[in-house]
TrEMBL record:
Record-annotated Flagellar basal body rod protein N-terminal domain positions: 5-35
Protein name in the entry: Flagellar basal-body rod protein FlgG
Species of origin: Edaphobacter paludis
Coiled coil: none
Keyword list, A-Z: Bacterial flagellum, Cell projection, Cilium, Flagellum
PANTHER family per UniProt: FLAGELLAR BASAL-BODY ROD PROTEIN FLGG, FLAGELLAR PROTEIN
Localization per record: Bacterial flagellum basal body
One Pfam family matching this protein: Flg_bbr_C
Family per record: Belongs to the flagella basal body rod proteins family.
Quaternary structure and partners: The basal body constitutes a major portion of the flagellar organelle and consists of four rings (L,P,S, and M) mounted on a central rod. The rod consists of about 26 subunits of FlgG in the distal portion, and FlgB, FlgC and FlgF are thought to build up the proximal portion of the rod with about 6 subunits each.
GO biological-process terms attached to the record: bacterial-type flagellum-dependent swarming motility
Amino acid sequence: MIRALYTAASGMSAQQANLDTVANNLANSATAGFRERRLQFQDMIYQNVIVPGSAESPQTNSAGLQIGLGTKSAASEVIMTQGDFNATGNTLDLAIQGSGFFQVSRPDGTIAYTRAGSFHRNNQGTMVTSDGDTVLPAITIPSNATNLTISQYGIVTATIPGQTAAAQLGTIQLATFVNPGGLNSIGGNLLTPTDSSGNAITDVPGGTTGMGTLEQGGLENSNVDVVAEFVQMILAQRAYESNSKVVHVADDMYSQINGMIR
C-alpha cells in the first residue's frame, strides 16, 4: 500500500508537469512563430517479485510477476507544424512558408534562431528584431529608401533617390537543422542549437537545401491548437483525479490495518 502511494504520487507529479506544458502553450497561443510542446512520459523501474523467464520446472518458464513503480516526464517534444499566416501590411514583417529559421545575432555575439519575423530598423538603419538583435546577414536600409521589397527568395531591394534602378541591399538567409525538435528554447522567441539538433545548415530561401520561402507583409501565428489544448487539459485533470483517488484508497486500506492492530 505504501508502494501504491508513491506510485500514484508520481502520476500526479507527471500530470502537474503536463498541465504546466498545456498552460504554457495556451499562454503563447498568440505569440508569433511559437511552437507548441507536448510532454512525453515513460514508466519507471519495476519490482521483480518473480523474474520473467525464470524456471518453474524443467519444462516450463514463468511469465513473471512485475509491479510498476510509477511514471515520470521524459521529454518535452516541440511540434514543428506550420502556423497560420496573419497579414499585417508591415513592410518588414516576414513569414516563412515551409522549413527554416531566421538567424539573429545576440548581444553576447552568439547566434540564435527564430520563426518570428517581426522586424524593424534601428537608429542605424539595420534590420533588427523587437529586442534589437541584428538579423543575419546584416542588412542596412538607408533612411531615404522607398518602395522596400523583400522577395520570396530573400532579396531585399529599395528605391534610392538619385538612382534609376532599384538598389539591392542584401539577401536574407535562413537556417535549418537535421533535428529542429532538439533546439533549446531560451525565451524571447529565440532558439539555440544543441547536440540533439545538430549544427545549423544555412541557405537562401527557396534554395536547394529545402528552405522555405518568404512572405512579406505578414507574420506566422503560433501553431497551438487551442481546442486540442483544452482537451489535453481535461485529460490531464482526469488522470490527476484518478491518481489522487488511488492515494485516498491506499490511505483507507492502511488505516484499516492500523485499526486491526488496535
